[in-house]
Write a structure and sequence with these properties.
355 residues, Neuraminidase, 4-stranded antiparallel β-sheet, mainly beta, globular, single chain
């Protein structure tokens, strides 16, 4: 896992604009100040949330099982699909290699491409790290390396591009068409209307803004009720934000996500997450009133893939299931589970495990 200092240094490198006199401006740069403050802190350290995270009443997973039926007409040949989304009857995903967002039918037919590949020009991106689909079909793309937010019309044309005034890391779109971003140095999310204008900052998430660094390596998913779910790849938390910027809840996920420090081989203190616990929260998909969390357990012989399902309104654990094949990304739509793999995606009927 990337250390807090290394991650913040990377944020500075990606998100800080060039200064006429970099040496004179260094001490006044908030991200540089953050990096300096982190030098004396454990690496990485546990976020000290303003609101105490609530535990789950369930201590163990309850699995549902049944026969899975593949329903897609074909599995398309793709390069590197990540972050699947189901919207407007189709499946969207970002491509790690081509720096674009693609739209396909559930039967595997290409519909449209959003973006012009790698670059700094209109519609181009240096790194697509977050995106969302608005109710009118517009696709919003966050590019932290190019410090840019791009808005594409449904037909693929560029509507506009914006340059945020902070180190953009993650981006999502709510069901009522607010663009939600999370970056550094900050301890909160920002909400901005898709139509443009000023932004609204949410309430503080942690007591010290630099303690949110562990949450930068994660994602934002707009939910079905105007809010957004925030998660980290390596910390077992679900954080739900209301569209007005207030925190609805912070919940521990079910399972073994202990905050116990461990002693690494080289000495010092280190948070027992990610590599130490051999798991990764790889994706989150929201459908109706459910949050589906894809967890990959790194086993010695063969990885195990589990989807934990939570109630959207309160964050309570409901049940778990195992997808029929290994997947790296997940999207839920109706009675379908869409699973992203290394070079394709597959669509299965999920009625066997749905209530």
């Amino acid at each position: 896992m990337i250390s807090g200092c290394a991650l913040l240094a990377a944020v500075w490198a990606l998100g800080t604009p060039a200064q006429p006199n970099a040496a004179d401006a260094a001490d006044a740069t908030p991200v540089r100040q953050a990096a300096a403050s982190l030098e004396s802190l454990p690496d990485p350290h546990t976020p000290d949330f303003i609101q105490r995270p609530r535990s789950q009443s369930a201590s163990e997973r309850t699995f549902r099982s049944g026969s899975w039926t593949e329903v897609g007409a074909q599995r398309p040949s793709l390069t590197n699909p990540r972050a699947l989304r189901a919207a407007r009857g189709d499946v969207f995903f970002r491509d790690q290699s081509e720096h674009q967002v693609y739209r396909y039918t559930l039967d595997g037919e290409h519909v449209r491409t959003y973006g012009e590949g790698r670059g700094v020009g209109p519609g181009q991106h240096m790194a697509v790290m977050g995106y969302g689909i608005a109710s009118n079909g517009q696709v919003v793309v966050g590019d932290p390396r190019g410090r840019k937010i791009s808005v594409f019309n449904e037909d693929g044309t560029v509507e506009r591009s914006e340059r945020p005034d902070f180190g953009l890391i993650r981006l999502g779109v709510t069901s009522d068409d607010q663009i939600v971003t999370f970056g550094a140095p900050t301890s909160t999310v920002r909400f901005q209307s898709l139509s443009g204008g000023g932004h609204q900052e949410g309430e503080d998430l942690v007591r010290n803004p630099y303690e949110s660094i562990g949450l930068l390596d994660g994602g934002l998913r707009g939910d079905t009720q105007g809010g957004v779910i925030q998660f980290s790849f390596f910390y077992g938390y679900l954080i739900r934000w209301h569209g007005n910027g207030t925190i609805d809840y912070i919940r521990h996920m079910v399972g073994d996500y202990p905050p116990t420090p461990t002693e690494p081989a080289g000495g010092g203190t280190k948070r027992a997450v990610g590599r130490e616990l051999r798991f990764r929260i790889n994706d989150v998909s929201i459908h109706d009133d459910e949050i589906h969390v894809l967890v990959i357990f790194l086993e010695p012989d063969e990885n195990r893939y589990v989807v934990d399902v939570y109630d959207l309104a309160a964050g309570d654990y409901r049940y778990s299931y195992e997808p029929p094949e290994p997947v790296r990304s997940l999207a839920i739509t109706g009675n379908h589970v869409i699973g992203g793999q290394d070079t394709t995606f597959a669509v299965w009927d999920r009625s066997a495990i749905a209530e």
